[in-house]
Amino acid sequence: MVHTLKQEEVSQDRMSASLKAKKFVLWLFVVSSTIMFGGFTSYYIVFAASKGKGHGLVLPDVFMYSTAVLVLSSICLFFAARAVRRQNIQTQKIFLWLTMLLGIGFAYLQFDAWSALYQSGATLVNNNAAISVIYIVSGMHLLHILAGLCFILNSLWGAYSKVQPENAVYRIEIASIFWHFIDILWIYLYVFLLLNS
Amino acid sequence: MSTITLHDTHNNDHHDGHDHGHHEQSFITKYIFSQDHKMIAKQFLITGIVMAVIAMGLSILFRLQLAWPDKSFPILETFLGKWAEGGRIKPEFYLALVTIHGTIMVFFVLTAGLSGTFSNLLIPLQLGVRDMASPFMNMLSYWLFFIACVVMMSSFFIESGPASAGWTVYPPLSALPKAIPGSALGMTLWLVSMVLFVASQLMGGINYVSTVLNMRTKGMDLWKMPLTIWAFLLTAILGILSFPVLVAGVVLLIFDRSFGTSFYLSDIVMGTQVLPNEGGSPILWQHLFWFLGHPEVYIVIMPALGISSEVISVNSRKPIFGYHAMVYSLIGITILSFIVWGHHMFVTGMNPLLGGVFMITTLIIAVPSAVKTFNYLATLWRGNIRFTPAMLCAIGMVSFFISGGLTGIFLGNASLDINLHDTYFVVAHFHLVMGSAAIFGMLAGVYHWYPKMFGRMMNAKLGYLHFWVTFICAYLVFFPLHFLGLDGVPRRYYAFTEFEFMQKWVTVNIFVTWAAIVAALAQVAFLFNFFYSIFFGKKAVQNPWESNTLEWTTPVEHIHGNWPGEIPTVYRWPYDYSKPGAEHDFIPQTVPYSQTMSSNMPHDFEGNAESERIQREWVEKQAKEKTTQD
């Protein structure tokens, strides 16, 4: 049996293989980023174990609100992704904008939390390095939020410039992988800081 | 029933302009901001060579100081100005020299120069891929590396000089800008350079892993990959898992230096001034640093091991001995390398029980390393050896790996290491096992794949000259250092004449320095050969070493997308050399078993009953023909 693969099929194949590989690239980035935060938190664990003390603070309530906002943004992004798959561009735009706004809101709340910490006397420059770690991990996490917002923007850009459906799915998929990752990452960091006071 | 699939390749050239059309490229997109993996490989290689020459020059400078601590070399003042006033290198600058020599050699030459060059060149070519998963990220990876190099070198042009706290930049020395001149701006530049470097390595490594796991050509399953690719894959995984930890450590160090936090600082008095920093611990930096630092030495050596496997097998005209064992030992090294970092810290007051654990894990690494060594020797054994320059370098690599590896067993023992820590014994150990061995692996790769990179051959005679002088001198340089170490001579000391027990070693230092100078001069042969051959070397044929792997099926002239038509399909493993019954002594991976009936072995078919039946019938038919002829 002989059949000829049409050119379109071949380039389609190659295209989706390349998208798959690019998505895998993002997963590997997620791994390496996790390891970096693992580095910070293991610094914390070893520090706390050798000094016999953690940060010893009651974390400001703002962190709780910011966590809620971030989780909400993740849910919005989930609905946006569903809208993309159903090719409902209007809903997609609304939910992407919501995700975006909630993300920015999260960033604002993190700054708020820092100022609450600062006013309570738990400053970045501190003779208890465990307190400084709070600033470092939330700061590094905020950098990830910034990158995540770029992914969301990229997806929004795709929605407005009416890219091909596969391309739109690809854009929202990488945005989702990254955004849900930083969501879970923040929950991990928050719980870690709560448990190891 | 079989299915034959014909790809409609005639239309390819204009249609798939999206990824690999053959459009004309401008000078800038072809040579500078290239996204083609072959060009990026060459960029990494040439930058790596330039950095290696610089780092070698630095080592000659401090070797001069070690050999003739009381002598004046007016020429040094001409070049170095205030850092060599009166023709003698200042102590501060001596420390900067060893620091930057180590940093450049470990990170810029043997990590980026080695992995960057050969992963980029060989992963797509040996796996049958048109380009990396993300060519753009690949380009970014090179340019971040380039900027990191520039930032690192720029520290030679600032008032306070380059970083001087050793390549491991231990705090508090590195964390206090006022501690030594080298801890001022030079240290900041070092840290910035390293952050850029790590970003570059992560982008590169992530790309390599994704390409290897997702984009192999038809028929190329993991167990048909050449050992080079296995080594690059595991090296990249190692990098992805360990470099981020260095970033974490560096971020904390930057905050300590520039913002006044106390992650690594406590109880410090400078002069009469008590510093406000309290509560940190410099040991924590060592943990974070060596969690990267130890895998790093395997990031350096594993590509060299992979390259040697390939070169030795090709030039012995024999299958590599123990292919699976080679892969499993690489995997073993990869996993073990994450649980041995404590052996760098036996003298930090570590709990002896914990020290014992690290000692055992360290010594276990000797097992996969020995498996690899014996496999190399078994591959060479009774092979039909072709002593090309690449082969000599690969054998040299094995030699250094053995002689340097043996002292690793000494140092892995806590009870010995506590005495030998920070002596020249350690210097001798790692310069042999990871310095010389990795450099020789890299040279083997350059000599072997030069025809693939530049379409021309390097001069073999100059190659032999370069190899023998470098090989002998490397031993003459590093072997005597063991004895200094056993006598307790500490590393990084500026003048051997200042200490009575070290004075007797000055003569040895003079010998070592002369050997180093001769070795450096031998590199001129290499450099001339390398750059001359790019333009005037003998034109290479398509498969100059009669090798099996896919890269030799591409045309000599480079094209974007590697193969002009369809990507070849792979049918067999890459090590079918001197197979009994075969027409030639090598069978490329693209030759199906149906074309090599006379040399097929029962295990070639991996239990496929249909293929076994066809082979059996063919053998019976041959036998019948033979009897009728008789």
TrEMBL record, chain A:
Transmembrane segments: 24-50, 62-82, 94-111, 131-153, 174-195
GO cellular component, one term: plasma membrane
CDD domains: Heme_Cu_Oxidase_III_like (cd00386)
Keyword Cell membrane tagged: yes
Domain (Heme-copper oxidase subunit III family profile) ranges: 1-197
PROSITE patterns cross-referenced by the UniProt entry: COX3
GO biological process: aerobic electron transport chain
Protein location: Cell membrane
Entry keywords, A to Z: Cell membrane, Membrane, Transmembrane, Transmembrane helix
Family named by the database record: Belongs to the cytochrome c oxidase subunit 3 family.
Protein's membrane topology: Multi-pass membrane protein
GO MF, one annotated term: cytochrome-c oxidase activity
Name listed for the protein in its UniProt record: Cytochrome c oxidase subunit 3
Pfam families (alphabetical): COX3 (PF00510)
Coiled-coil parts of chain: none
From TrEMBL, chain B:
InterPro entries (UniProt xref): Cyt_c_oxase-like_su1_dom, Cyt_c_oxase-like_su1_sf, Cyt_C_Oxase_1, Cyt_c_Oxase_su1_BS
Single GO MF annotation: heme binding
Keyword flag Transferase: no
Database matches in Pfam families: COX1 (PF00115)
Keywords carried by this UniProt record: Electron transport, Heme, Iron, Membrane, Metal-binding, Respiratory chain, Transmembrane, Transmembrane helix, Transport
Regions that span the bilayer: 44-64, 93-118, 139-158, 187-209, 230-255, 288-308, 320-341, 353-378, 390-412, 424-450, 462-485, 505-532
GO biological process entries: aerobic respiration; electron transport coupled proton transport; respiratory electron transport chain
Main localisation: membrane
Topology versus the membrane: Multi-pass membrane protein
Stretch list, region Disordered: 1-22, 598-630
KW Transmembrane (keyword) present: yes
Compartments, as annotated in UniProt: Membrane
Domain named Cytochrome oxidase subunit I profile: residues: 27-595
Domain of life, per lineage: Bacteria
Any one Gene Ontology cellular component term annotated for this protein: membrane
Bias-annotated ranges (Basic and acidic residues): 7-22, 603-630
PANTHER family: CYTOCHROME C OXIDASE SUBUNIT 1
Family: Belongs to the heme-copper respiratory oxidase family.
Protein name: Cytochrome c oxidase subunit 1
